[in-house]
Every structure is written in structure tokens, then in C-alpha cells.
Amino acid sequence: MTAKHLLRWSSFLVVILGLTLLLPSGVSAQEESQDPWEITEDTTLTEDHDGRIRIATDDVTFDCAGHTLTFGNRPDPQSDGLHIDGASGVTVQNCNFRGFYLAVSISGDDNKVLMSTFSLGEYAVFVTGSSNIIENNNFMSSPELLTGVLDGGRSNRVIGNDFDGLLEVGLEAGIDAVVMGNTFTDIPGLAVLDDKWGLNLYDANTCVGSVSDPEWICETGDGAFDDDDSSVFQYAIQWLAWKGVTVGCTPDRYCPNRAVTRGEMAIFVARMLRLPISSHDADYFTDDNGALWELAANKLYEAGISVGCGGTRFCGDHPISRAEMAVFFVRALDLPMATQDHFTDDEGNQFEEHINRVADAGITLGCNPPDSDHYCPDGSVTRGQMAAFFKRAWGGD
To answer: Which terminus of the chain faces fewer neighbouring Cβ atoms within 10 Å, N or C?
Structure first.
């Protein structure tokens, strides 16, 4: 990173801090004529919009439906575009951002910017929160677009985006970030500003044409872990890492053939669902004090996903059976009643209905391919198999 680049980014940060202080509050909801337009509920555009937008309400979806957001068609230090202001669970999608100094700024957690296009401006995305996802967007060529996907938080995801013909791309990944599956085409300046002790995952990114200073961001790697290269579940394992659900059994290993314990299952589900911490510090089990999964087990109990293994015990050290796993998925996904009986070896099993529900949902294919008429309800589940189950449940095939 050159001194010129650092100066530009430093100037940018100063401006962003100023913009945050300038953002007004108390603007009436749905007052599109006011600036910024305050979005307080799910909103789908029916026409292009010119002006700033502020979202400070949790769990709102703002869908541009392909329409364009502008601010006078010119980059301007006051044109901060769309600001997710401390909110969480917000989704912004299908937008065409043009003419902003900063198109999207995110100061909250667990938000998403999806399937949008950025062009004709200075900066595209600035993230200071954590666990946000910037995915499947197109950052298009324009004379002055400096695309910064920067963050100072944790566990943010920059996945599957196209950066094409930009003046510069700067990535500051923060901690526990994933920058994966992106394509960088004909970019004079591509740089990683700071890797925060190397606790981030950069993999499967592609550099095309003339891309200067790619450092190691475009090197081809084997993914997050060193021990899953020969596993049939490798892609599912990498997907689980991209989603922030697993950090492996060691910093560089996933242990795909090791049996999953009930405690590990609790952690995986709690992370995938981003379950909240108990508001009253309740402790529901007596056998998990100090265990890595204690917090996750309590989260699952409050969410109605697990009531333990009997009495006040959770049995976190015990390998989870395939039947028990089915129960976890049914409750976590609220799966409907089964429409058919898929397997012949679970007759009379107390969890037979749950097993058929996960089969109906396409989460399990049985344990004896190609016949696939057995489920092996008492069998254990490997960590590799578990990754595949999660991928089918939450990420499609």
C-alpha cells in the first residue's frame, strides 16, 4: 500500500466520521421527500430514487427491485447514500447505486448487501459492524470509483463479488473475516490494508487481466483447512467456514472424519441461527459448567431446539446420533410434517417422524447409497457429514 493510498483512505475515514455526525434523527417514517428517507419497514421500490436513505430499524428488507439510487448523479462528500445506522438483520438487495460519495455504510451487525451494482462514485461499501455479508455484487468500472470494502469489526464476509475495471480496491478485513470467491479484473491497485494478525480467510479469489499488487489475496489455495482436501465434503466444509459456523478443530484442521458431539452440534446450530444470549443469564444444565458449549446449549434450550439428554443434563461430550441430529434440524428449521416414510430401518424409533421430515426437506439422503432406504438412526455423524447436512439445510444443494 503506497503512501498515496494510505492518505486517501485516511481522508476517507475522516469524512465518514463527519457524515455519521451529520445524519439527522427523528425523520418521519416513509417520508420519501425528506432527506434522508427513513426506512422503518420492509420496502420495495417501484421507481428510481434520488436522495439519501437511512435504516435504523432491525430486520428490515430494502429491495430496489433493480431500480437506481442516486444523489444528483455526482460524487459529493455529503452524499452518503444508504446508511444502516446501528440496526441489525437488515437486507439491502437488487439496487443500482450511482453518483454517491459513499454508496453504503454499515454501522450495525448481521446485515446483508446482496445482488447490487455500484458505479459512478468514490467509495462503495464501508463496514464498521460485525457479521455482515457483502455478497454477489457487481462493482463496475467508472473513472473515479474507489471501491473500498473496509471494516473494523469481526466476522464480516466479502463473498462472490465482481470487481471490474476499478481504479483501486482496498480491503481491510478486520478479524475473523472471509474474503472468498471474488473476481478482480483489470484493477491498477489491489491491496489489503491490514490483516489483523492473520486471523482471516482469503481463498478462491480470481485475478484477471492487469491487476497490480495482488499480494496473496489471489493465490489459489486449498481453503480454510489443510485436512479436508480428499474429503467428499470439502465444499460443504468450506461453506461452513465461510458462514462463520466453524473455525475447525484446530486453527488449520477441520477433522472431517471425527464424530460430532452434542456440544459441537449446539455450537454449530447457535452460530448458524445467530441465537441471542439469554437476557437473564439462565443456566439450564448441570453438566456443562465451564464447557465450550455451555452458552450454546443454553441458547438452544431457550429457543426450544434442545431440552438436553435427560433431567438437567446436556451430555455435550457424547457423540450425537443421526436420529438426535434429525430432531435438532426439525426444531431449528421448524420443518413441517412428513409426507412419506423414507426409510425401512427406523420403524418404531421415537424420532421416526423427525427423520422423515429432514428427508422430506432434502437434508438427508440416507446412509446406504444408492438404495438410500436406510437412515442408520443410531449411527454417529462425522464432522464432514455434518457440514453437508448444514449446507443442504441452509445453503441449498
So the answer is: C
